[in-house]
Specification:
Oligomer: single chain
Shape: elongated
Distance between the termini: 65 Å
Largest sheet: 5 strands, mixed
Order of helices and strands: HHHHHEEEHEHEHHH
Strand order of the largest sheet: 3-2-1-4-5
Strand content: 5-15%
Helix content: 40-55%
Radius of gyration: 25 Å
Number of helices: 10
Length: 271
């Protein structure tokens, strides 16, 4: 009677009834969402989880991921809002990038800067060197001060690990460390081209600013460091085992900096 009402053939009904039950795909997708969120150290929101699942061949919409995350009680880390100055400043010709943050080869443009991290022991300062091609941290160092020796050590580590060619563009702000005689002498010895922000315009070095924002949202603000040593260990772990090697980046077509460089070396990406 039911088959007649639903216009279903009797053989078709019995065939359906004899099939083994399919696994609950919804439950499996929830597990995958939670797993990817855990892999990201709790930092990914639904857009990045969507990218990872797409790469793994799982078809799911952003809104479904958002719903699953809400049901599971998990979320990504939102960016803190910052007040930005609306004043415009005149370019002075020393900025070689002109906010063009795209490059087609590794070790052609490095962006550098210093940031500070609060600990119960006092301030800890972090200097980084970022390769603009893959957004990879190619050199970094810590110190309880902001003297020239700090960014200089980070730069020398980058040079040692990457062995760049002459003519590399070195982009920084106008901090006294980067404009000191000792630092500029090192750039001249390496035959690097110096590029500087327009005074008071942090957007000219947006790539490094973006990294520091991610570092603080995903690592620093989630903990309260007792000592500088503890902060150095946690931040080093974040950079070496997550940011460079695993964290997907929108400018890298959804892959990590190290994987992006690997694809470039294998000639699987072209410009």
């Amino acid at each position: 009677l039911l088959c007649k009402c639903m216009r279903v053939s009797r053989p078709g009904f019995y065939c359906w009834k004899s099939r083994p039950e399919k696994p609950d795909t919804t439950a499996l997708k929830k597990v995958r969402v939670k797993s990817i969120h855990k892999e990201s150290k709790g930092t990914y929101g639904y857009p990045r989880i969507k990218q990872v699942m797409k790469r793994r061949g799982i078809n799911i919409s952003r809104m479904t991921i958002y719903k699953f995350m809400k049901e599971l009680g998990i979320s990504g880390i939102p960016k803190r809002r910052r007040n930005r100055s609306k004043s415009s400043r005149v370019q002075d010709g020393k900025n070689l990038l002109q906010r063009d943050f795209e490059t087609t080869k590794p070790n052609k443009v490095w962006c550098v800067d210093i940031s500070y991290i609060s600990t119960k022991q006092g301030w800890l300062y972090l200097a980084v060197v970022i390769d603009l091609f893959s957004r990879r941290i190619v050199g970094y160092d810590f110190a309880p001060h902001q003297r020239t020796s700090l960014p200089l050590k980070a730069l020398k580590k980058a040079i040692e690990s990457r062995n760049p060619e002459k003519g590399l563009i070195h982009h920084s702000d106008r901090g006294s460390q980067y404009c000191s005689e000792e630092y500029l002498r090192t750039l001249e010895e390496q035959e690097f081209r110096s590029s500087l922000n327009v005074a008071g315009t942090c957007l000219d070095n947006a790539v490094v600013e973006s990294f520091f924002s991610s570092l603080k949202q995903e690592c620093v603000y989630r903990d309260r460091f007792t000592t500088r040593t503890e902060a150095m260990e946690k931040i080093s772990e974040y950079i070496d085992t997550f940011y460079n090697s695993k964290r997907i980046h929108s400018s890298n077509n959804g892959v990590s900096p190290m994987e992006f460089e690997h694809l470039y070396r294998c000639k699987k990406i072209h410009f």
